[in-house]
Fold this sequence. Notes:
Mean pLDDT: 90
Distance between the termini: 41 Å
CATH architecture: 2-Layer Sandwich
Structural class: alpha+beta
Oligomer: single chain
Radius of gyration: 15 Å
Number of strands: 4
Order of helices and strands: HEHEEHHE
Shape: globular
Amino acid sequence: MAVERSFLDVSDAQGAAFFGTPDNGPVVMLNLLRFREVADYSHAPSLAPEGGTSGRDAYAHYMREMRPLLEASGGAVLFSGSASRFLIGPLDEIWDQVLLVQQASKASFLAFASDPKAQMITAHRTAAICDSRLLPITAE
Length: 140
């Protein structure tokens, strides 16, 4: 039986490849998210809500705290919605939520993601999701 692999964070190699290419203006990030049934705060127990919470609720908490920082950096959530199975794609790949997030540039995205407050808030995202995909999209 094959071991399922989860993707939660940017790898060093993928980050270097993305940020090592020219910064040609706005970038939209396509986020595909799969939530944990129960949020896992083992990496940040001081942030865990008393009594626990669902992955979906932990992600909603993350977005409430992160959105003002995103918008202050010039970014915006263009779309957020529920998802399920692909109409065209793998039958066994199921996603709970899809987001389109725009940043003015790769540099503004890096500055936003590197902000210490944003990094602290990201602990809620880590607790919330069991798998994700992040696809940068630029205009041609």
